[in-house]
Design brief:
Jelly Rolls; 2 helices; single chain; 4 domains; Immunoglobulin-like; signal; mainly beta
């Protein structure tokens, strides 16, 4: 039987609030409507919707010592857009360096006086985000990113070329903190175009899109010149600048060049987090906050890609948020069987009907450091009826998904309608998709049918693990008593083999030097990167204890053993059919099957082997069912 194993690896950078298209009228700031029912995560210190910023958008240096118009040496007063050339461009988008405007603070340290808590910003403008402009108006900068507050885009003055962009903008707000000794990390997310530097109490904590060498003046061009605003998630672990009470957060936003067509800034979130560590559990039932969609809405509506919502740039700010296990039984919190009781109630039915919501969608972020040191991951998940898990936009695991999958997000269907949640544990050997910083996990949860009585989802854990190059090693019979077959999975795709020796020839824990080796046949890798191998060992003697190992290349498995019987007096075996593990609950079915085997062996202790007549599992592609 060909078995398809999906791999689960660690996903996604979520996008910030992206409002609808807006048209500016008479040059006045036009602000898109907010959804009054939108839920804001109250644990956040900064959010797009609630944080009020003071900002400077009039081409004035916030570090100016006085109100004169004295210009810094070497700074042209009538800078031309043609002077902003990419002669030293570098990076993904190309960086541009150009200085213009009325800079009055020449030293790098002095230019940052405006980032300190005691700076007087009472004369600045005040508004909520997001901020920006496209050709001087409120418009879509791409990907649905529309500024909430219009920034002044162009420099006014008789000596300036037409439509010369203001080189930089400055923002300040305060956050209130208590018990700062217990805060170990801050997680942040911004959108920016073209470059940004963030400060807390005058100390730089993050920069994005900034040219090499930074800025020597406040009113200076230089940045990525990206086609659309860039989403950036980051974690701050050096928090020595924090203090009890009010803390000042400052941001400088820079244009890439003098003839840029747009500018954008949105500080989507700043919240207390947990430092990234490869030894931690990255996801837990108790600690992980999920953004989720439960209202029978397609998160990919309007897109040709139904999985666009799993991608890093997707905006989930309007989704609900919650912790723990999620689910419902007949519209209420109740036991779904096997002790699975949801912590957070999901909306079970569409509006006032008894028609079940067909699918639910979940997103969260995990922060990782030194992913090159991570060799494997282990994930544990419970669900009813079917799930697909994505990491950084990639499909990495499927559980109980019907043949052919889903052609749309709001679809019913599972390989088998579960009577209780399925419980799967997966080891992930291929972690190549992980990256330092933010990784986004997205999950779609499907109902089996419109009349389903329950729904359940719990991502119990995601944690670092040791890689397992070999798994599911199984010893079986072959043509006669002198032969035995071994099958296994391996993440190593070459030189599959098995070696066997007599146990009596072992030297301590070392494999016998007098060993026979047999080549294995290989089946191509499945979606998880595992290959299936089978080898046949021949020349077995009766009444002999053997040890064996499976291998690939220079890597070998643990040592296993078996003992042959007398060939002259026949043998006993058990025949079983239709266990169909997973037809109900995988956990319950597995327990029942194992109890059956124990009873059979107790009744027939001379049994040499068991033959399964078929239907061992309910879903061929579900590896968790074979574990029973």
């Amino acid at each position: 039987m060909s078995v398809k194993l999906k791999r689960l690896t660690a996903l996604l950078l979520s996008a910030c609030l992206a409002a609808g298209n807006i048209t500016a009228a008479f040059g006045a700031p036009v602000q898109p409507d907010r959804d009054p029912g939108a839920k804001v995560r109250t644990s956040r210190l900064i959010s797009t919707e609630e944080t009020v910023w003071r900002y400077l958008d009039d081409n004035t240096d916030p570090a100016a010592a006085d109100d004169t118009d004295e210009e810094m040496p070497g700074t042209p007063s009538n800078a031309s857009p043609s002077d902003a050339s990419p002669s030293n461009a570098s990076g993904k988008y190309g960086f541009y360096r150009f200085a213009a405007g009325k800079n009055k603070a020449s030293s790098k340290a002095g230019r940052l006086v405006w980032t300190h808590a005691d700076y007087d910003d009472s004369g600045w403008k005040e508004a909520r985000g997001s901020f920006g402009a496209k050709k001087g108006e409120i418009a879509d900068l791409g990907d649905g990113l529309v500024p909430y507050t219009l920034l002044t885009q162009y420099i006014e003055g008789p000596d300036m070329a037409e439509d010369t962009d203001i080189p930089a903008y400055f923002f300040r707000t305060t956050i209130e903190l208590e018990d700062i000794g217990s805060i170990t990390a801050l997680n942040g997310e911004i959108f920016y175009d073209d470059a940004a530097i963030i400060y807390i109490n005058g100390e730089e904590v993050h920069r994005a899109g900034v040219p090499e060498g930074g800025y020597s003046q406040n009113l200076e061009y230089g940045g990525t010149n990206a086609g659309t605003p860039i989403n950036d998630k980051f974690q701050i672990t050096d928090l020595t600048m924090l203090k009890e009470g009010s803390n000042t957060v400052s941001v400088e936003l820079h244009q890439g060049r003098a003839n840029s067509s747009d500018i954008y800034f949105d500080f989507c979130s700043l919240e207390i987090g947990t430092p990234a560590s490869k030894s931690d559990e990255f996801i837990t039932t108790e600690g992980t906050v999920w953004n989720y969609l439960e209202n029978n809405t397609d998160p990919a509506e309007g897109s040709e890609d139904r999985t666009v919502w799993t991608h890093t740039e997707f905006a989930d700010e309007q989704w609900k948020s919650g912790k723990g296990s999620f689910g419902a039984k007949k519209g209420a919190i109740a036991d779904l069987g096997g002790g699975y009781i949801p912590d957070t109630l999901l909306k079970h039915y569409i509006d006032d009907t008894k028609t079940a919501v067909p699918a639910y969608f979940f997103r969260t972020d995990v922060y990782l450091n030194d992913v090159s040191d991570l060799e494997a991951l282990e994930a544990e998940i419970a669900y009813d009826d079917a799930v697909i898990v994505y990491i950084n936009g990639k499909n990495v695991y499927e559980g109980q998904v019907p043949e052919g999958g889903y052609d749309k997000n709001l679809a019913y269907g599972s390989a088998n309608g579960l009577s209780a949640p399925s419980h799967d544990i997966v080891t992930i050997n291929d972690v190549s998709m992980l990256r330092d910083g933010v990784n986004t996990i997205a999950v779609e949860l499907h109902q089996d049918r419109a009349s389903s009585s329950d729904i359940y989802f719990d991502f119990i854990s995601l944690k670092a693990a040791q890689p397992k190059p070999f798994k599911a090693i199984s010893l079986g019979v072959w043509n006669d008593e002198t032969q035995s077959a071994v099958t296994w999975y391996s993440s190593i795709g070459e030189d599959g083999k098995v070696r066997i020796g007599e146990k009596a020839d072992m030297d301590g824990d070392s494999f016998p030097e007098q060993a026979s080796e047999f080549a294995a046949e290989r089946t191509e890798a499945n979606d998880a990167g595992f290959y299936s191998f089978q080898a046949v060992m021949t020349g077995l003697k009766p009444d002999t204890a053997y040890v064996y190992q499976v291998g690939a290349g220079e890597t070998w498995s643990d040592i296993y053993e078996f003992t042959t019987r007398d060939y002259e007096n026949g043998f006993n075996f058990l025949l079983a059919g239709d266990p169909q593990i997973g037809a109900g609950s995988t956990d319950t079915d597995t327990e029942g099957w194992q109890n059956t085997l124990k009873m059979a062996m107790k009744a027939f202790p001379e049994t040499s082997f068991l033959i399964s007549a078929g239907d061992q599992v309910n879903t061929a592609s579900n590896e968790a069912q074979y574990a029973g």
